[in-house]
Amino acid sequence: MFSCSSARKSRRTNVLTGSTVETIPATESKTPPENNNYSGPVRSLDVPLDIDRKAFVNYAKTFLGTPYKYGSSNPANGLDCSGLLYHIFQHYRVKSPRSSYDYANVGTTISLRKALPGDIILFSGENSRRIGHMGIVTENKDILKFIHAPGSGTRVTITPLSGYFEKHFVKVIRVLE
Fold first, then answer.
1. Region labeled Disordered — which residues (predicted)?
2. If you write DSSP's letter for every residue of the chain in order, what string do you get?
3. At the top level of CATH, which class does the domain 10-26+48-174 belong to?
4. Local confidence band at 2 (pLDDT 50, 70, 90 cut-offs)
């Protein structure tokens, strides 16, 4: 796994295929989308957000199949893991971090068994304990599942918490009420 948005050229590993790709960060769109569900002032993640969990997850699912593109938060070009969350939060007019590692001290840490759809799940990087990947919990019944942009050569998908991701799991954070 890897940091979704850093400012340097690096080698990235696709966690699903194991292939390594050299990447150079792409530019990203910083403008919020025009179709915001929330028309008030821009909010922050300093306090729990009053966003409907089901609507939040359903909006995230509209990006299923979007190609992965390192450094991008624009679905027309592709998305990386933190770009997916950044774009979703922009939709709800929420100021959010752009890099996965910047979520380390955001929200309230909750236990895995108490995770709800809409909570954010964080993972360590390939060769690091630092946050390097993230997704949004979509369900937590028999097994927790999350939506994310896994890496080069993949598309936004829903994945169960097992194998590689279980090994690199760091924590779940709650930012929604």
1. 1-41
2. ---SS-SS-EEEE-TTT--EEEE-PPP---SPPS--S--SS-EETTS-B---HHHHHHHHHTTTTPBB-TT-EETTTEE-HHHHHHHHHHHTTEE--SSGGGGTTSSEEE-GGG--TT-EEEEE-TT-SSEEEEEEEEEESSSEEEEE--STT-B-EEEES-HHHHHHEEEEEE-B-
3. alpha beta
4. very low
